[in-house]
Design goal:
mainly beta, four-stranded antiparallel beta sheet, 27 strands, 13% helix, globular
Length: 419
């Protein structure tokens, strides 16, 4: 009995040393920033003992948080053995033998994981570890999750494509090692999160984990829900099912005219090809080539303006010297769902101002065989200032369409934080 009480007391002391304790916060919140040079989205949190703040790129579909472990120092990290449940069910994991002196990246009979790096052509390989993470809750306090799994990679410094100052990646993928499900397990709140990407490098967006309402937003009135689908084959690791978020697009209409699409492409086939995936790694929405050509053709017919030039990567650009310079129709994306949900893409998300005199249609051609193996990849620009809720437990996604039409933006959510 004395030993058990001592262990409990020591555990409480360890948590107190990391900061305040909230056994069941209503939700957790991370700020989202947009990098000026790369246009990548990134955030920051605190990890290790003692805590160190780290900047991390955000990738919606990645199965892990990844941290640069060069000179990694922490008294609280642990490494699961390969035979542990965590290792045996981890995405892309293999047995790792290392007979060198023990370090965060070297433990014998441990787990090593190989995953695609969404920001470079290279592969991430890292030891699977667990360590303490501190994150703000939506009530303003900071809470600690003592055993968050992550990949420890000592070679990320050789991969320069991350946003300036970022030393790893936040993986929000649909898997037990993604941060949404890890936080839900740690704090016993619903398996869901909401993402609102900023449209400016000068302002912040937000990611909220759990069931906490966003200030000033009544989700039930704002969001149109569509089912989530599972792609049985990952585009980047064929022996695993995809950890990305796939939805079903039924049709696309620009103004009052539909875009002719081969509907077989809008479904995922037995080889994992097709369908629609939501992505933060792609800056702009991309279509398979035949869909892209049809989309551009209808847009030009519906938009009242003069197509003046091509500005790579865009094929359709307009004179915007005096304001936008064109009449831009809404793009209505009809989604699967019993309530016939429609996600509306308005001019703020369909057009990109290249300079003071030119604005371009912000969609790109993904080719006849896209790397992502999806016919439609919804990119970050089209998601900016849109509230998107990923309800993993109920296998659905909710879209708000542009918050600007409701007199607010992703930068207006104000959570008081002590972190």
């Amino acid at each position: 009995m004395g030993i058990s009480r001592s262990l409990i007391f020591l555990s409480i002391l360890m948590l107190l040393s990391h900061g305040s304790i909230a056994l069941r916060p209503r939700g957790l919140v991370l700020p989202v920033m947009k990098n000026a040079s790369t246009n990548q989205y990134f955030s920051h949190l605190k990890q290790r003992t003692p805590f160190v703040q780290i900047n991390l790129n955000i990738d919606l579909g990645s199965p892990y948080m990844v941290v640069n472990c060069e000179n990694y120092i922490s008294s609280s990290y642990t490494w699961p053995r390969y035979t542990s449940p965590l290792c045996r069910t981890a995405f892309g994991a293999s047995r790792h033998y290392c007979n060198l002196p023990a370090s965060p990246s070297c433990h014998n009979d441990s787990c090593i994981v190989y995953i695609d790096n969404p920001f470079t052509p290279f592969v991430i390989s890292g030891a699977l570890l667990q360590d303490a993470v501190s994150i703000p809750s939506t009530d303003g306090s900071s809470v600690v999750a003592p055993h968050i799994a992550f990949l420890c990679d000592t070679f990320l410094h050789d991969q320069p494509a991350f946003a300036n100052g970022a030393t790893g990646m936040i993986g929000l993928g649909r898997t037990q090692t993604g941060l949404p499900l890890q936080f839900a397990a740690a704090f016993s709140f619903p398996k869901k999160f909401a993402m609102c990407l900023p449209s400016s490098t000068a302002r912040r967006g937000v990611i909220v984990f759990g069931n906490s309402p966003l200030p000033g937003i009544q989700l039930s009135r704002l969001l149109a829900y569509t089912p989530l689908y599972i792609n049985p084959i990952s585009a980047y690791w064929s022996r695993e099912r995809s950890t990305e978020y796939f939805i079903g697009v039924k049709s696309i209409k620009i103004g009052n005219r539909g875009v002719p699409i081969n509907n077989t492409m809008l479904s995922i086939d037995g080889n994992g090809w097709g369908g629609t995936v939501i992505s933060t790694r792609n800056r702009f929405t991309q279509f398979e080539s035949s869909i892209y050509r049809a989309f551009v053709s209808v847009f030009l017919q519906q938009a009242r303006g003069r197509n003046i030039s091509r500005v790579p990567p865009f094929d359709v650009c307009f004179n915007a010297k005096n304001g936008l310079g064109i009449s831009v129709p809404d793009i209505e994306v009809s989604l699967d769902g019993k309530d016939q949900p429609i996600w509306t893409i308005s001019a703020s998300n369909s057009m990109v101002r290249v300079n003071e005199s030119i604005a371009c249609l912000g969609f790109v051609d993904g080719g006849v065989d896209p790397v992502e193996r999806a016919a439609v990849v919804i990119g970050g620009h089209q998601l900016e200032d849109n509230l998107v809720e990923f309800d993993i437990a109920r296998s659905r996604v909710g879209f708000s369409s542009s918050l600007l039409r409701h007199g607010t933006s992703c930068s207006n959510f104000n959570f008081t934080s002590t972190s």
